[in-house]
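Late entry, evening session. Most of the bench is empty. Finally got around to the prediction I had been postponing all week. Sequence below, unchanged from the version circulated by S.P.
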Amino acid sequence: MSIEQLSVLRDEILNVIDSENLQADLNREIEKIIAPVDDGKIANSLKREIIELIGSIEMIKIRFLRGEVRAKDLHREIDFSLHQFRMRYQNFKYRDDPIFNAYF
C-alpha cells in the first residue's frame, strides 16, 4: 500500500468534514465502511485501535484540506501515525490487514 493510496479522501469522509462532532461522525463513517469485511475474528479492542488509526490518518488529511498541514508534512504525519501503531502492535501488518485494506 502506497502513501498515495493512504492519501485518498473518501466521499463518505467529505460528507462529515464540517460536522460539529467531527471525531464521532468520522468514526461512525469508518465503522460503516469496514463493517462488510469485519468477520468478527479480530478482537474488539484491536478493531477499535484500527478504527482509531484510520481516524487519525483521516484527521491528518482533513487538516491538510483546511490548510493546517503543509503538503510536504502530509506524508510525514501519516507515516508517524503508522509508526506509532506499529510500535504498540509490533506484529500488526497493516498491508495485510483485511479491515485496514478494506478502508484504503
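Two things to note before I forget:
The chain has a mean pLDDT of 85.
The chain has six helices and no strands.
Will write this up properly tomorrow.
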